[in-house]
Amino acid sequence: MLRKIAKIYIFVISSVFGESYNEYLANQDGSFSSYKKNVKKSIEDEEKAFIKYQKQLDQDLNNYQQIYNEERKKIEAEITKIWGDKKTSSPKVLIEYSDDLKTRKIINFETGTIIIERVDDKNINQNEIEKELMNNASEFLKFSQRQAYERDKFINSIDNKFSKIAKSPMVKSQKLDGFKPILGSAIFGHIPSQKESEKYINSNKDEIEIKENPNNKNENIYSFSFKIPENFPNKKALEVKSDVYRFGKTWQIEPALILAIIHSESNFNPMAQSPVPAYGLMQIVPRSAGIDAYNLVYGERKLLSAQYLFNSRNNIELGTAYLHLLKYKYLDGVTDTQSRLYCMIAGYNTGTGNVSRAFIGDMNIRKAIDKINNMSSDGVYNYLLKNLPYNETKVYLKRVMERYEMYKKMYS
């Protein structure tokens, strides 16, 4: 009965609308075929667009590296001409030069030493040079991150030149803290007055050292140094603790590990920089870890400026996100949690490819994981210390583990 009704229904439609119904069915088949073609074309277009974007991104990153190398050579040549050396900032040493490059203020975060130096005429009055050194030292104790960035001719030149030629999307720079002193806040707990600064410096400084300028026999290099408190790293750790705990919770990484990484990478120097180049507390490399971590956090592959990475909050967020990638993506197949921790730490410093090389001689981390899983955690640790390609990473692994245990006790 139902079949008869259906036939009558189709007959009526065909009688009333003629061939239009058959055309409708044919059009539906055609539309579906067209839809499949359009979907396929859309996917192909997206793939082509991504390949094009990645190619441009790679080109921009290569341009950035080239600008970095050129500007570094340029500033080192200018410094050498005046000082006879080419000292610039590094991960654990912050150096601020005056506009004429004849005064430099150095904080070594690792040794806890501040050095104030001035190139000047041999005939300058001793009291005058001592007063100038003291004024520079007092100012340095109130030195903020924003001032450090704005006065760094090298980094500013790189950012300015690169922003003019970069074609890939770039994360907008954010203003750095212009009030909290890098040094003074940890030493005094507040912005020190001139009187407080001078009292502290006089109580801790050594005598003025005078030596002839190797580049000019008519000039001397005048300097004195003083120490900062031994608990300085612990006080700096407290300053970043809230961000460490916040992002540690978001990305399921222990705060003690994040602090141990920061301590080992930069000794809490927020303006840390290295020739890789890498920037900030957790030494983020813009061209690799930075892009991968930013993509994880924000879903976009973008260029990151030095100023963006000097922002401590940004730096900790991306550094912690990269630790998440190491733990839950690149090394997720390592079954023993302690073994995975050792590989994470080594991988943060040198990349998972070099971790793989330590175990199997090539960069295939998936194959290396099979070998790692057949070893005890102690065996993995000792194997890394013996076979990692770079001695720097071996030392790094030891230091991070020591500090990791220390911070676990402090903040457990």
Helix content: 55-70%
Q: What is the correct CATH architecture of the largest domain?
A: Orthogonal Bundle
The class by helix and strand makeup works out as alpha+beta
CATH topology of the largest domain: Lysozyme
Distance between the termini: 78 Å
Read across the widest sheet, the strand sequence of neighbours is 1-2-3-5-4
What's the Cα radius of gyration? 30 Å
Count of alpha and pi helical runs: 17
What pattern of helices and strands is seen along the backbone?
HHEEEHHHHHEEHHEEHHHHHHHH
Task: Give the biggest sheet.
Answer: 5 strands, antiparallel
Whole-number count of domains: 3
- Contiguous runs where pLDDT drops below 50 for at least 5 residues: 1-19
Per CATH, the class of the largest domain reads: Mainly Alpha
- Total count of strands: 7
